């Protein structure tokens, strides 16, 4: 019950935040200098065409009315026509989103496994050379921007060593599997095409790594510090004194309570990785939502920009609610506190 | 401290000058102790040193850079695309400009961006947080904090990119875009601190003695939050520089031929892998600066024991 009220309250808050975000986006897209109709049609379009488009876009009406029409259409999933692809923005997003989702999922997987693994290793061998190595590397990882990682990886594995394909989602000569989910790896498995699956995975590794290394380092640092804190607690000493094998102590009794901050940060990083993917997708020419958004921004494609930001906002908020739920499931104390505060 | 207590115990009347002298000595002692604590961790020293060196390089760039004229429109095709050598430690780019010189001038743009953004963002965020926290639970609190929620609902990079792209692409507008996205973080930090402090006795006693809101906010509350704010500023210098370099990378920040670190990484990317030095050295320069500010920030955090940041 407490969970339901908590969920209801978070969703209510989120609707409010989204409404605010929509105003912010509207301000960016409409109130900024320049005539959106003129921008959409280009400098050479005749004036009467521009005037007609202004009429269609409700640009001659007061700002509040404009906002109402814009929001009404956005809620219906109608974001207008992209002036870059000349197609329905909603259609573009449906096409490009799965690619970003696949990339971000894969990166999230690398982050979780690598970050928690390295963090645990570091805490287990605290103050040895393993710990020091992990700490130095993760520090460097946190401060390196994703696009620098992308370029270094591209240089090393893509170009110098030639182990991995540098750009795109599939090699030339390998026909794309029939589109079902839009995730290349899943689609190729569904089509029973192992060659395409393997090729898609190879294309995924570098962009996903570039995206993951920063948050992976962050995760490793946080896991290490919470684990190291918890390691010195009495209950761990008690379990060890009882003769419970170290593996069990670490894996069962230490990991779960130590994962709470890790999960919170992971959620934030996961949601933010759609935005970090902006440059990574551009560098690896990955046909995803972020590259689409980036191109829209570079071409001042206002309809597409607003839609992409709104979608990212919805994603970010949803993931944050999910994280709160997961953290509640992991930690009974937080769950109880949330219930009490009702 | 001990001396003041002793004076009070013996009920001696002391002159104003003596008090000032004591205060000065205390401050010196505190500084000495702080430095001792800070310098116990060698990484903090590395951070402080990196930040100082980069700052000095940025300030004295025209004097330090081996080829200062290479940051202006300049071409020298005879010396184009040279790998790193003694004459050009970081090599030269595709039109013969010395990369090291451009990196040193790039520090100027990077630090300048950080300083300007923080100078805009910190006062606004701190004021918002103070007011919202002090009027905790009123409509003022609700309005300000829900406003920050909206800004924090989207990763800052996306909105900064969007705003920068709608405006004319240049360094000034990219600073404005990042600033617009950054103040809520300070508002939230200060809000948390103020909400905790507003019920302390020193605030209550100021209220009962008739102090105005402005006095309580800026003379009673604010001085108690300087350390976490300062720590966050040091860490944020790094993040702002990263976001700035990302904006420059996609062409929305520093405009060529001006040397932005992100711009340089981008312009060299098309010559990979043969002319790797064109992108790699500016990229590493970003990492070094950001690392320096992070190490310094961590050192400050340990020093102030400011866990909120």
Q: What's a concise summary of this model?
A:
Chain A is mainly alpha-helical. Chain A has helices spanning 2-31, 36-41, 47-56, 63-75, 89-124, 129-143, 146-160, 184-190, 194-231, 234-241, 246-283, 289-298, 302-330, 332-340.
Shape of chain A: globular
What class, by secondary structure content of chain A? mainly alpha
From the spread of the alpha carbons, the general shape of chain B counts as globular
Of all chain pairs, the largest interface belongs to:
A-B, 49 and 41 residues
Low-confidence segments of chain A, ≥5 residues, pLDDT <50?
A: none
Structure notes:
The complex is a heterodimer of chains A (342) and B (309). With 342 residues, chain A is an all-alpha fold. Chain A is 77% helix and 0% strand. Chain A contains 14 helices and no strands. Chain A has helices spanning 2-31, 36-41, 47-56, 63-75, 89-124, 129-143, 146-160, 184-190, 194-231, 234-241, 246-283, 289-298, 302-330, 332-340. With 309 residues, chain B is mainly alpha-helical. Chain B contains 13 helices and no strands. The longest helix of chain B is centred in the middle third of the chain and has 36 residues, at 99-134.
Architecture blueprint of SSEs:
The complex is a heterodimer of chains A (342) and B (309).
Chain A lengths: L1 H30 L4 H6 L5 H10 L6 H13 L13 H36 L4 H15 L2 H15 L23 H7 L3 H38 L2 H8 L4 H38 L5 H10 L3 H29 L1 H9 L2
Helix pairs in contact in A: 1-13, 5-6, 5-9, 5-11, 6-9, 7-9, 7-11, 8-9, 9-11, 11-12, 11-13, 12-13, 13-14
Chain B lengths: L1 H8 L6 H24 L2 H18 L1 H4 L34 H36 L4 H14 L3 H11 L4 H27 L3 H8 L4 H9 L4 H24 L11 H9 L7 H28 L5
Helix pairs in contact in B: 2-13, 3-5, 3-13, 5-6, 5-8, 5-11, 5-13, 6-8, 7-8, 8-11, 9-10, 11-12, 11-13, 12-13
